[in-house]
């Protein structure tokens, strides 16, 4: 697995963070390689780091005795030093492309040495894979780096995040959301359509009988009240006439 690195020994952003989490053993090897000049060398750390640009550190899998580390790093990790610095101090795009070409040539030589010849019993290596190097935090247009990779000696397969389309438009796509059913009242999404009134003919028979009973009872009560009013009027009329006569008679007596 190949990816582009700075020569300062930091995997702190972009895809480098994922590599650091996935391959901690490879990160320790990379970090030590950047911060430790060769034994017996009089170079400073910064001078040593400057010399790393344009080269590749190929980290082999851990030995079988380190089973825990071997499970985390089951294959080779190729660290291509394409930029001296990172962040705001990242190398210019032109230099990064030149460094990429040199680093790929160095990687090809290392792989050839590992494989060796059949007579020497060389080690068999698998296929080479890489992310779209230089196109993330280093800010180099991917098509330019791609042209450098295609011109190199190695046959490298580029891997992409799941669901992302490639240059030809092929690739998986995210599942679309289900279409919402049309609103009957033309309202906004989430609003409830008004409930349609139930036709009278659809009401249950029991409810219809209750309504009829109430109407009949109201008519009966109305007739009773009117009769009572008429009867009372007929009974009070003679009583009032008798009272008037008695008052007149008492007035004449006095």
Automatic annotation (TrEMBL):
Q: Which residues form the Macro domain?
A: 3-50
**EC number(s) in its UniProt entry?**
3.1.3.84
Which Gene3D superfamilies does the record cross-reference, listed alphabetically? Answer: Leucine Aminopeptidase, subunit E, domain 1
Arranged from A to Z, the UniProt key words for this protein are: Hydrolase, Protein phosphatase
Keyword check for Hydrolase, yes or no: yes
Question: Catalytic activity annotated for this protein?
Answer: ADP-alpha-D-ribose 1''-phosphate + H2O = ADP-D-ribose + phosphate
GO biological process terms held by the UniProt record: peptidyl-glutamate ADP-deribosylation
The record's similarity note reads:
Belongs to the POA1 family.
- Keyword set includes Transmembrane helix: no
GO-annotated molecular function: phosphoprotein phosphatase activity
Q: Where is this region: Disordered?
A: 160-254
Highest rank taxon of the organism: Eukaryota
Where is composition skewed (Polar residues) in this entry? 228-243
What is the protein named?
Answer: ADP-ribose 1''-phosphate phosphatase
Residue ranges annotated as compositionally biased, kind Basic residues, are: 244-254
Q: What class of enzyme is it?
A: hydrolase
The record's InterPro entries line, in alphabetical order, gives: ADP-ribose_metab_enzymes (IPR050892), Macro_dom (IPR002589), Macro_dom-like (IPR043472)
Q: Which Pfam families match?
A: Macro
Biological role: Highly specific phosphatase involved in the metabolism of ADP-ribose 1''-phosphate (Appr1p) which is produced as a consequence of tRNA splicing.
């Amino acid at each position: 697995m190949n990816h582009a690195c700075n020569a300062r020994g930091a995997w702190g952003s972009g895809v480098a963070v994922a590599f650091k989490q996935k391959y901690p053993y490879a990160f320790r090897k990379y970090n030590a390689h950047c911060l430790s000049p060769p034994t017996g060398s009089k170079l400073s750390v910064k001078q040593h780091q400057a010399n790393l640009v344009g080269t590749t550190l190929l980290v082999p899998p851990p030995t079988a005795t380190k089973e825990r580390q071997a499970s985390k790093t089951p294959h080779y990790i190729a660290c291509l030093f394409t930029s001296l610095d990172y962040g705001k101090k990242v190398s210019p795009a032109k230099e990064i492309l030149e460094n990429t070409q040199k680093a790929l040539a160095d990687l090809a030589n290392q792989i050839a040495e590992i494989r060796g010849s059949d007579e020497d019993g060389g080690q068999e290596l698998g296929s080479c894979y890489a992310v779209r190097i230089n196109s993330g935090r280093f800010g180099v247009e991917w098509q330019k780096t791609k042209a450098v990779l295609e011109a190199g000696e190695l046959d490298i397969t580029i891997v992409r995040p799941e669901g992302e389309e490639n240059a030809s438009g092929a690739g998986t796509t995210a599942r679309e959301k289900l279409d919402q059913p049309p609103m009957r009242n033309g309202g906004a999404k989430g609003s409830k359509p008004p409930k349609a009134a139930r036709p009278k003919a659809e009401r249950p028979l029991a409810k219809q009988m209750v309504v009829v009973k109430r109407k009949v009872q109201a008519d009966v009560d109305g007739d009773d009240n009117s009769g009572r009013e008429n009867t009372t009027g007929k009974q009070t009329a003679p009583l009032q006439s008798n009272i008037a006569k008695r008052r007149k008679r008492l007035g004449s007596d006095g």
